[in-house]
Structure to design on (285 residues):
């Protein structure tokens, strides 16, 4: 993603295509269209998360705030599943032996992953097949757009392991997505939400056959990457922040946000392309 900071600005060194280091706990592919595919890569275990992968994913998404080479992200899982949540043996077992300060450090770390996904300016498109459970369901929820398949089952199953449904921001984000009553049912019971329910309730933007899922997600992400990425980042920020505002505060915040966007070169490019009856080519500045 290109940032509106010119090369001669002394802060420019903070930004660049190497702002996000190569990961070791998930697969990362570099796209030539500004789309960065990210794959949770433990298919033999339905792609569960570990202590290390939580932290690495958190740091990678945080790094996107400074990355100039990423304009959109596709998040998916290897094989036939998205993510089964925290690894039972590598996470849940050790948690039963930890002290309260250690447990709080862990729960803050998992929540920081969601915060990092919401804070990065790039739109995140989640391509979700098969199992999408626990922390995996929260990563799907923290994404900006979600595509599923008829085989997708999404479960916020924290209560099934003796924990509250309040985990990683679930009680804030899920009611906004599907409504308080439906969210309460899923968080209290831990039952799986079918793909049909998820689509009807607004959790999924669309459903595709498994073979068509990744191509559809990449096509959508590529469309977003070709758009005015600075403005996309502003849209994401306002969608995140305005839940805590009154209507009058939101209207004023959007007035300021739009005025900022009107100073971008992309805004000028769009006008000039319209006047020339051409399609604008956005550059994100």
């Amino acid at each position: 993603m290109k940032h509106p900071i010119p090369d001669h600005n002394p802060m420019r060194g903070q930004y660049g295509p190497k702002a996000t280091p190569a990961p070791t706990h998930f697969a990362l592919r570099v796209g030539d269209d500004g789309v960065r595919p990210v794959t949770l890569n433990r298919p033999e275990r339905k792609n569960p998360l570990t202590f290390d992968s939580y932290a690495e994913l958190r740091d990678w998404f945080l790094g996107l705030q400074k990355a100039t080479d990423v304009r959109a992200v596709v998040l998916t899982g290897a094989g036939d599943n998205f993510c089964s949540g925290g690894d039972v043996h590598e996470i849940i077992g050790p948690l039963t032996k930890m002290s309260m300060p250690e447990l709080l450090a862990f729960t803050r770390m998992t929540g920081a992953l969601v915060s990092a996904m919401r804070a990065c300016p790039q739109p995140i498109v989640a391509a979700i097949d098969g199992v999408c459970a626990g922390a995996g369901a929260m990563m799907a929820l923290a994404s900006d757009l979600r595509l599923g398949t008829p085989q997708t089952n999404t479960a916020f199953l924290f209560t099934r392991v003796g924990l509250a449904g309040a985990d990683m921001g679930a009680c804030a984000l899920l009611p906004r997505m599907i409504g308080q009553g439906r969210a309460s049912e899923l968080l209290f019971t831990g039952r799986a939400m079918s793909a049909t329910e998820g689509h009807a309730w607004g959790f999924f933007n669309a459903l595709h056959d498994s073979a068509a899922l990744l191509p559809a997600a990449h096509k959508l992400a590529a469309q977003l990457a070709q758009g005015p990425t600075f403005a996309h980042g502003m849209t994401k920020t306002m969608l995140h922040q305005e839940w805590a505002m009154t209507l009058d505060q939101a209207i004023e915040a959007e007035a300021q946000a739009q005025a900022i966007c009107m100073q971008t070169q992309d805004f000028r490019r769009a006008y000039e392309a319209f006047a020339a009856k051409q399609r604008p080519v956005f550059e994100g500045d």
Observations:
- The radius of gyration is 19 Å.
- Strands lie at 27-28, 35-40, 72-77, 124-128, 131-133, 145-148, 153-155, 192-194, 206-207.
- The mean pLDDT is 92.
- The longest helix spans residues 100-119.
